[in-house]
Design a protein that fits this description.
Number of helices: 4
Structural class: alpha+beta
Number of domains: 1
Order of helices and strands: HEEEHHHEE
CATH architecture: 2-Layer Sandwich
CATH class: Alpha Beta
Number of strands: 5
CATH superfamily: Nucleoid-associated protein YbaB-like domain
Oligomer: single chain
Strand content: 5-15%
Radius of gyration: 33 Å
C-alpha cells in the first residue's frame, strides 16, 4: 500500500466517523421521551440523560390522593427515563458498532421495563414513593395516652415547711 492509498483510506475513515458522530449528535438531541397516563391527566417529559424537563398535571389528576398521584408520576418518570435510555443506545449503536463492548456497556444501564400504572391505594393507607417500587404502608397508630396516677393517700403535706424543711412558726 502506498502512502497515498493509506492516506486516502484514513481520510475516508475519518469522514465516516464524522458523519456517524453528526448523526449521533442529531439523534441524541431527539432522544428525550414523554410518557402520558392512560387517562391523559399526567404527562412527564425527560431529557436524553433522564433528567425531568416537564411535568403536566391535569385537574383530574390533581383531585387524586397525594400518594396515588406521586406513585403515578414516579412510574411515568421511570417509564420515560427508560424510553430515553433506549433511544440514546439506539443513537449510539451506529457510532460504536452494533457488536461493540461500548454499546454493551451503554445498554447495560437501560432500566428495566416499567409495569402498568399502579392501582389506587386502599382507603386509610398511603403509598411511599422512592427510587424503588412504591411501598404501601399503614398509617401510624396513635400512641396510647399515659395513665394518670392518683396521689398516694399517705403523701405528706409540705405546706407547713419552708424550702429548708424547717417548720414554719404559727
Amino acid at each position: 500500500m502506498t502512502p497515498e492509498e493509506w492516506l486516502a483510506g484514513f481520510e475516508s475513515t475519518v469522514a465516516d466517523v464524522r458523519r456517524k458522530a453528526a448523526e449521533f449528535e442529531q439523534n441524541l438531541e431527539q432522544a428525550g421521551a414523554t410518557e402520558v397516563s392512560k387517562d391523559g391527566s399526567l404527562r412527564v417529559t425527560v431529557a436524553p440523560n433522564g433528567a425531568l424537563t416537564g411535568l403536566e398535571i391535569g385537574d383530574a389528576a390533581a383531585r387524586r390522593p397525594g400518594g396515588e398521584l406521586a406513585a403515578q408520576i414516579m412510574a411515568l418518570a421511570r417509564k420515560a427515563q427508560r424510553s430515553a435510555a433506549v433511544r440514546v443506545a439506539e443513537a449510539f449503536a451506529p457510532l460504536a458498532g452494533e457488536d461493540s463492548e461500548a454499546l454493551r456497556m451503554v445498554t447495560s444501564y437501560v432500566p428495566p421495563e416499567e409495569p402498568e400504572e399502579p392501582e389506587a391505594p386502599s382507603v386509610g393507607r398511603r403509598i411511599v414513593v422512592g427510587s424503588e417500587e412504591p411501598v404501601e404502608e399503614s398509617p401510624p397508630r396513635p400512641a396510647p395516652r399515659p395513665k394518670r396516677s392518683r396521689p398516694a393517700e399517705d403523701d405528706e403535706d409540705f405546706s407547713e415547711r419552708d424550702t429548708f424543711l424547717r417548720r414554719k412558726k404559727p
